[in-house]
UniProtKB/TrEMBL annotation:
NCBIfam families on file: bacter_Hen1
InterPro entries referenced in this protein's UniProt entry, alphabetically: 3'-RNA_MeTfrase_Hen1_bac, Hen1, Hen1_N, Hen1_N_sf, SAM-dependent_MTases_sf
SUPFAM superfamilies reported in the protein's UniProt record: S-adenosyl-L-methionine-dependent methyltransferases
Protein name (record): Small RNA 2'-O-methyltransferase
Top EC group: transferase
Keyword terms of this UniProt record: Magnesium, Metal-binding, Methyltransferase, RNA-binding, RNA-mediated gene silencing, S-adenosyl-L-methionine, Transferase
GO molecular function, one term: RNA binding
Pfam families in UniProt: Hen1_L, Methyltransf_23
Length: 471
């Protein structure tokens, strides 16, 4: 019988701790019954220096005695017994369910720690080829080696097949790696072996927590995972967009996790409310949301009639498409014509001068500057404070000192995979003062979120003002 195979290896010492994380003894073969066949977990190597777990999936043949409604030949003739697909993702969820929770009774600290991992899937159906595999896994921190498998090794002129030999190496939490595989295997397969219902949205959001919201291929992943059903993908994208700028534990706004109020609003909400207050105090009516992303702030601004013109700006067309859906600009009649005329979306890079952005009352850079290389920040400053020159500029950014209060963040780690830097309070204050002095603004720096006596608040905000609105 042909078997589908996936291996997970580590060189963490002692490497045999992988057995504790997977809740599988390396000296045994573990067998699981699945609706589609059987799965086995074994350890082809297990010593102090290196340990590898193998998941082997045997796909059962369909019942040929019954002719189902809507009979298709594909039910009986397919590549499921031979290539990794959504069946392997389901087997992962069954065999490593405890490991996917990110907990370990015997090694609790290790379960929360990033360790060196090597994952190999020798035959993976990949509709999009090796390039797509790299686009999906590389942004998550993996070193990707995806080798296209030829249709026939004896006839190379026939070209490549739709299968790749995939190898991943990286330093991640095991639970994070398993969740990524659980989502991305059926995405690469671009098919599922079961009916996709509304429950799949919840599964996707849960499995994608902490990595999917900020993934550059987020829309493709969501669309494929949910079988290209727009009725499912739109709400999924909206839920992911809401968490796009959240850190792993940003719903914990208290000084320590033990004292956290579970009913407190998330940091994303607290931050947005702080920005909205600053805008109201400025008296602005025409506002730029620079780096608007999926449009969470624009939605709140559109609800307030004091703002007569709103412009969302982002370099990513995908983010603007999500923002358009959230604002319901993509559906005729979904909002009033008056509101439709109040808001528009522009694709533009904030490090270049853009004449379309000049002359506005206020501009917001909410959790934006940390996504720009520090070497390019002077270009952004010249484009925003020099060329566009709104009367008020509001900037928020993470406080790097507060990261020590997030237990899921390793020492020195940043809150988002795409952050190029995160500043301390003194670094941000010095930058704000220098920008204000160079471009004729006054500036006030404030804390956003619950203030810790030792490390400050999770977010810091600077409000820059010229002498009056509209100058």
């Amino acid at each position: 019988m042909v078997r589908v195979l996936l291996t997970i290896g580590t060189t963490h010492r002692p490497a045999t701790d992988l057995g504790y994380l997977l809740v599988k003894h390396p000296d045994r073969v573990h067998e699981f019954d699945l609706p589609t066949g059987r799965a086995f977990v074994c350890f082809p190597e297990a010593d102090e220096a290196r340990c590898t777990a193998a998941l082997v999936l045997e796909v059962a043949a369909p019942d040929r005695s019954a002719t189902p409604d809507g009979f298709t030949l594909g039910r009986f003739v397919n590549d499921r017994p031979y290539a990794a697909s959504s069946l392997l993702a389901a087997a992962l969820n069954k065999t490593f369910r405890t490991a996917m929770l990110g907990t370990s009774k015997d090694r609790p600290e290790l379960a929360a720690t990033a360790i060196p991992l090597e994952i190999r899937i020798p035959v993976l159906r990949c509709r999009g080829g090796a390039d797509l595999a790299d686009r999906l896994f590389a942004p998550l921190g993996w070193v990707v080696t995806a080798t296209a498998i030829p249709l026939d090794v004896e006839h190379p002129e026939w070209g490549r097949s739709s299968y790749v030999d995939l190898a991943l190496s990286g330093t991640l939490r095991l639970a994070d790696a398993l969740h990524q595989l659980y989502v991305l295997l059926p995405v690469l397969d671009d098919a599922k072996h079961y009916w996709v219902s509304t429950d799949e949205v919840d599964k996707l959001v849960r499995a994608g927590e902490g990595w999917l919201a900020g993934h550059p291929e987020r829309e493709l992943i969501v669309s494929r995972y949910l079988a290209h059903r727009r009725s499912l993908s739109e709400p999924a994208l909206e839920r992911l967009a809401e968490s796009d700028d959240r850190v792993v534990t940003d719903s914990v706004d208290a000084a320590s996790p033990e004292d956290a109020d579970e009913d407190a609003p998330s940091l994303a909400v607290v931050r947005r409310e702080a920005v909205l207050r600053a805008l109201r105090e400025s008296g602005a009516q025409r506002v730029l949301d620079l780096g608007c992303g999926p449009g969470a702030l624009l939605v709140s601004l559109l609800e307030d009639r004091r703002y007569t013109e709103l412009v969302g700006v982002d370099v990513a067309s995908r983010a603007l498409a999500v923002a358009a859906r959230r604002l319901r600009l993509d559906r005729p009649g979904a909002i009033s014509e008056r509101d439709r005329q109040r808001v528009r979306l522009i694709q533009s890079a904030l490090t270049y001068r853009d004449a379309r952005l000049a002359g506005y009352d206020a501009a917001v850079l909410m959790e934006v500057i940390e996504h720009v290389d520090e070497a390019r920040l002077p270009d952004l400053v010249r484009a925003v404070f020099g060329a566009a020159r709104p009367a008020t500029v509001i900037v928020t950014t993470p406080n790097a000192e507060y990261n020590a209060r997030y237990p899921s963040l390793a020492a020195g780690a940043m809150r988002h995979a795409d952050h190029r830097f995160e500043w301390t309070r003194s670094q941000f204050g010095d930058w704000a003062d220098s920008v204000a002095l160079a471009h004729g603004y006054s500036v006030t720096v404030a804390a956003v979120g619950v203030v810790d006596a030792a490390v400050g608040a999770p977010t810091q905000m600077a409000v820059f003002n010229t002498t009056g609105v509209g100058e």
